[in-house]
Amino acid sequence: MALALNCVLLASTVQAQDTDSALSTVVVTGNRGAEQRTVTSSPVPIDVVSAKQLQRTGKPGLMEALSAVIPSLTLPEKTGWDASGIARAPNLRGLNAAEVLVLVNGKRRHTSATLNISGINTGAAPADLDLIPISAIDHVEVLRDGAAAQYGSDAIAGVINVILKADDSGTSVTNAGQGYDGKKQTVQQSLDKGFEIGNGGIVHLSLDARSQNDDNKASANGYTYAQAYNLAGTSTYGGYGTPKTNLLTLAYNAELPVNDDFSLYSFTTVSHRKGEQGQNFRLPTITNTITTGPNGYPSGYTPTWYIAEDDFQAALGGKGQVAGWDWDLSTTYGRNDAEQGTYHNQNPSLGEATPNTFKSGTWISTELTTNLDFKRGFDIGLQKPMDLSYGFEHRRDGYEVEAGDYASYANGGYCVAPGNCASSGAQVTNGISPDEATSATRNSMATYVDVGINPVPQWYLGTALRYEHYNEGVGATRSGKLTTRYDFNPVFAVRATVSNGFRAPSLANSLFSARSTTYGVVDGVYQSINYGVLPVDSAAAKALGAEALKPERSTNYSLGFTFTPTDRLSLTTDAYVVNIRDRITLTGTLLGDQVTQVLQSNGITSTLGGQYFINGADTRTKGVDVVGNYSQDLGGYGSLKWTAAFNWNETEILGSKEFTTILGTPYALMDRQARNLITSIQPKTKLILGGDWSIDQFNVNLALTRYGSYKEVNSPTDRSLDRIYNAQWITDLDVGYNLTKNLNVAVGAKNLFDEYPKKQGIPSSTMVSSYGVYSPYGFTGGYYYTRLTYAF
Questions:
Q1: Lowest-confidence range among 80-89, 427-436, 613-622, 738-747?
Q2: Fewer Cβ neighbours under 10 Å: the N or C end of the chain?
Q3: What is the mean pLDDT of residues 193-210?
């Protein structure tokens, strides 16, 4: 017991890697000055995660690996349904993924075209970290502080800066594993190698390929024999668990010195991902199931949703010195194409002429960013020079929604009998019609200035100011940040920040359109329900109460300290408060006679309900991050690095837009389910403990993660359907052995003891029992793997 207690007290946030080197890594995120900063000397809270640390988590992608080592970053195995369950996104400090800015080599990463319209990150179309090859990464810097004054929109919760490899090393990693139950087989091959070019230049090439089978945990359905014939009581739902994915990513990172004062640089990532996941079973006994003909399903069917993405980012720039100034000029272009559709499906309104495969549409997001930055130090009579940085940015955002196949949205008029007609459009998700296809672009211009001084050697004071103007809808924004750090002695320092920031509504928030099909009871009758996410500026949405979206605006406060009594021990603690005004949320599904009447009067005849985005809530998030590190020399028994980190955060809604009036009738906009997704769906605490032991040719890494309790609200009105899931410990183990100097073999297990959440989900016709939806550690149980690494 005493040994366990010591493990807890003498621990760190950085697991499974050379902890000392991580702490001494010079960080560039949030620091534009000439003075080199590390994790413990930074005036703002920041984590550094190395490539080796990412590898030893045993996680296949960057998002999962970061979640395993950073307690303030969470990634539930299922953050939403359908496309948002495939293109996932992480949360930082309990805030929406849209409020986290992603950089690559300090340059803004473009956002995904896939907009989350259900679950934890509703309204987010963030940058997809898994589309960056993990083999290309040297390390990742995670700034846990508001930084909109330095980097612009989206940096409310913090910044994730992915630093690519820039050396002549080479590594081959083969990773294969599967779940304890034989499902979720995953094979991943990574390869990277650097080459010298020109006079002192370097180009580093990387490739990742990954294939993962699905892991469906759906239980038997609750249909009677009369409803589902011979499939009653069997497992028919196909989307409860991890999806099937195939991913290929390539990258290069290059720099070429031209002379002593000028260098050219460039980097690119190219990715293709195909993901698919099953959906709700369609009964063979209802009008919307065609049971006869060449494409009929006599016993009913389970459709499959797919998303096929092509992703590209390219940056080209030059940097150097002129007249004592360091300058950097760059242009970055990013594009994400996401085609969505369904297999094994039907458009019942076409009768026996229905096809079984549908392309629902293609969503395209583009971003072209040009930056010009300057910095230098000035001697103003203080013991340290004043750091001055300023710069300019132009960004052009684009978003496009392309129509799907005709059959995906067509109304063929098939009726079983007068008044008993099938729904139009493909089931699961109706396609985008040419009338709904749309596109838009937006330009923004920004300028910033960043100043840092040391009034006395032990006191740092920094300020940043940013002005940004958008030509469409958003207008002008102004952000500021004040940062300070005081070193009382080499052991103890206090740091604090205060800032305001913003997140401009994405074009996707305004333009996104989708039609979905679900099943439920309307007017006492179990039936299919077509509902749609309506573009905010559409006539139908406006008639239902939609208004033009405003930017989210935030104020951030942070206060903490660093404690480094020895080179082996460090501790940092930071408390924070983040207030967000006009937070963008999605309304609940508006259903009723008045809604149907409004939709029909605006030309939408096949949809019973609608949703749209609103500035729905003002929120306050408060929390604490605690990070410690301790390294121990065991002499002949090797070395041991203890690891631990803790995050507590809590979000409350200070005010919300609760109702709209449609044809004189009030309708709820922010119901209990929508509020719970903001306040209680994520654990309020996360604790990571671990130890990394190296002896001779062996390395053993053990990590224990405790996820706090969380709450699922399953009905807008019925509180008896609420479910609270208790805290849970999850154990990960990785054991490696050096066969030669360059060859390492490892075996490991994620969720070593095969833990699941309590099976207390709400029974339904789809599943008679379940684990709930949003478990922070998933509900697919233990997973074991082997890894072979060759360095050359």
A1: 80-89
A2: N
A3: 96
Q: What is the pLDDT of residues 155-199, one digit of tens each?
A: 999 999 999 999 999 999 999 999 999 999 999 999 999 999 999
CB half-sphere exposure, 697, CA atoms < 13 A: 10
Q: How far apart are CA 301 and CA 516, in angstroms?
A: 17
**Residue ranges per domain, the chain?**
2-791
Angstrom distances, CA of residue 724 to CA of 477, 708, 769: 40, 11, 16
CA angle at 731 for the pair 729 and 737, rounded to the nearest 5°: 165
What are the structure tokens assigned to 83, written together?
């496309």
Task: Quote the tokens at residue 278.
Answer: 């099953």
Return the pLDDT at 621: 97
Name the helix (H) or strand (E) containing 216: strand 215-216
Torsion of CA 16, 18, 22, 23, to 10 degrees: 110
User: How far apart are alpha carbons 406 and 3 in whole angstroms?
Assistant: 67
Asked if residue 792 lies in contact with residue 172, where contact means CB atoms within 8 angstroms, the answer is yes
Residue 82 has a pLDDT of 66
Distance CA 747, CA 684 (A): 32
User: In 3D, which of 501, 575, 559 has the Cα closest to residue 155?
Assistant: 501
User: Strands, E, within 323-437: which ranges?
Assistant: 325-343, 358-378, 386-402, 415-417, 420-421, 429-430
Per-residue pLDDT, 15: 35
- Residue with token string 């979905």: 516
CATH of domain 2-791: 2.40.170.20
Q: Report the pLDDT averaged over residues 540-545.
A: 90
Strands 609-611 and 304-322: unpaired
Asked whether 463 and 484 are in contact (CB, 8 A), the reply is no
**Backbone dihedral angles phi then psi of residue 293, each to the nearest 5 degrees:** 90, 175
pLDDT tens-digit readout, 356-403? 999 999 999 999 999 999 999 999 999 899 999 999 999 999 999 999
Contact 477, 574 (CB under 8 A): no
Give the span between the Cα atoms of 430 and 340, in whole angstroms: 11
Name the pTM for this structure: 0.92
DSSP 730: E
Say which DSSP state 136 is in. Answer: G
Check: CB of residue 226 under 8 Å from CB of residue 188: no
Report yes or no: 404 and 358 within 8 Å, Cβ to Cβ: yes
